[in-house]
Design a protein that fits this description.
By secondary structure, the protein is of the alpha/beta class. Helices cover 45% and strands 17% of the residues. It is built from eight helices and seven strands.
Length: 192
């Protein structure tokens, strides 16, 4: 794996799902769907949309989890129920309280309709310092960065520009295939 560089495994921005900072949640989901359909290099699908500013620079990321969280109702009572965990209540107890409270919520189709019109910038996650990796970094070092930060992906840079995304799934696939090849050579060499 030492011979591999991040740029060998990254997904270029041009092949990744992107939307402008003015996009809605619905537009971001459509962009994610389109990218998943057209990106055939890997059996692993994209799980996020990159948000671009007017200069086409990445300013954030909207993951599938961020999208689902946007569908959650927001009000003070529900926020208070979610804080019950801090006081030692089990997840099940908090979940039951949320379920009871949500019985009086609007129908889910109304929630979808409202959420579809929300702006991605209200739910995106701006990149943090530990999420960047230079394109010439060895995959070994990037692997350490992924695991130590519990990241599912890293934003790949060339100078000050983000040029791609290094996904955990692609690194896993490369490492697994290298392991298989190594074991195959070892067992083949032992038989001689």
């Amino acid at each position: 794996m030492k011979n591999y560089r991040v740029k060998d495994l990254m997904v270029p921005i041009s092949e990744y799902a992107t939307v402008s900072e003015d996009a809605t949640l619905f537009e971001s989901v459509l962009a994610l769907e389109k990218a998943q359909e057209s990106y055939q290099q890997s059996r692993y699908s994209h799980r996020a949309v990159l948000i671009l500013n007017k200069d086409k620079r990445v300013i954030g990321r909207l993951s599938q989890m961020d999208f689902l969280c946007a569908l959650e109702p927001r009000d003070a009572n529900l926020d208070q129920i979610r804080k019950f965990k801090q006081f030692g209540f089990t997840r099940k107890a908090v979940s039951l309280q949320q379920e009871e409270y949500l019985k009086n919520s609007p129908p889910i189709l109304d929630v979808y309709s409202k959420a579809a019109k929300l702006k991605v910038t209200d739910f995106m996650q701006p990149p943090t310092e530990g999420e960047f990796v230079d394109e010439n970094t060895s995959v070994d070092n990037a692997l350490h960065q992924l695991t130590s930060g519990s990241n599912l992906s890293l934003l790949v840079t060339r100078g000050t520009h983000i040029v791609g995304v290094l996904r955990l799934a692609d690194v896993f696939s490369a490492v697994f295939n290298a392991m298989k090849e190594s074991e195959s050579q070892r067992s083949g060499g032992a038989q001689r």
